[in-house]
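Cross-check.
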Amino acid sequence: MALKFGANVSTAETDYGTVLLDERAGEYWELNPTGTLVVSTLMAGGDEADAVAALTNEFDISPDQAKQDVDALVLQLRTSGLAV
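Predicted model, tokenized:
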């Protein structure tokens, strides 16, 4: 499922990944390069399977571990209210 950040979330890409600002809570979140790749894939309209494929193509990671990582990140972003 595609991912979309709430209107209250600002993003900035850095040399080390992506920084998210939750403007409601005044909290910053930092995504490493793998998290950035997952989020970029999902925000571009890809689904979780596309994000898993992107991770396994870019990094030395098994499909099972990539799926666990994608699922955990998406759950955390949605649970925190950053993404819908």
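The two ends are 10 Å apart (CA to CA). The first helix runs from residue 33 to 43. Passed to J.P. for a second look.
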